[in-house]
Amino acid sequence: MTKYRSKIGIGLAIFVFGILGGMTLFMIYQSVWSGAFVNLVVLAFTAHLFLNTYYTVNGNTLEIKSGFILHKRIDIRTINCITATNNPISAPAASLDRLEIFYDRSKIVLVSPKDKIAFIDHLKRINPKIALKGIA
After folding, report:
1. Which terminal residue of the chain has fewer beta carbons within 10 Å of its beta carbon, N or C?
2. How far is residue 95's CA from residue 92's CA, in Å, rounded to a whole number?
3. If residue 44 lies in a helix (H) or strand (E), which one and from where to where?
4. What span, in angstroms and rounded, lies between the C-alpha atoms of 75 and 88?
5. Judging by beta carbons within 10 Å of its beta carbon (0-12, 13-18, 19+), is residue 94 exposed, middle or buried?
6. Strand, helix or coil at 9?
7. pLDDT averaged over consecutive 10-residue blocks of the chain (136 residues)?
8. DSSP-derived secondary structure for 55-95
9. Which branch of life, at top level (predicted)?
10. Does domain 2-133 have CATH number 2.30.30?
């Protein structure tokens, strides 16, 4: 079993935490305590997701975990293509430097492993038929 942590994109972190932190400080300054409390809870939840998003290769299974929200299992033998992407849609990825994994004919998941090369090599050792697009 090998664990690959999600890369934490500095730009994404600054954007998300800057907006939430700025709103929280403004609410504290304005004495809007209920709003500040809600924002602090959202900040804590977001930090939890950023710090607890990882991908585990266990046998023929890729497990994708993002906090306590998402736990997905993918049979690596069903992966047919991996593409480099910066797609900003919601995903179990703490960076916009992402990989788009196509599996089970029509399903897609976005991930952002810190060590993309080792992650891809590990998947390709299990399933050499995986096509790579846009990956140097």
Report:
1. C
2. 9
3. helix 33-51
4. 25
5. buried
6. coil
7. 96 93 95 96 95 97 95 98 94 95 96 97 97 89
8. EEEETTEEEEEETTTEEEEEEGGGEEEEEEE---SS-S-SS
9. Bacteria
10. no
Strands 70-75 and 79-85: unpaired
| Structural tokens at position 84 | 């480099």
At position 114, the amino acid (one-letter code) is: K
pLDDT tens digit sequence for 25-50: 999 999 999 999 999 999 999 999 99
C-alpha distance from residue 43 to each of 19, 64, 65, 133 (Å): 10, 22, 19, 35
Contact 55, 74 (CB under 8 A): no
Cα 14 to Cα 87: distance, rounded to the nearest angstrom? 18
User: β-strands 131-133, 79-85: how paired?
Assistant: parallel
- DSSP secondary-structure letter at 103? E
pLDDT value, residue 4: 98
Residue 8's SS3 state is coil
Asked whether the whole model's pTM tops 0.85, one would answer yes
Q: Which residue has the tokens 């300054």?
A: 29
Tracing tokens 């890729």 back to the chain, one arrives at: 62
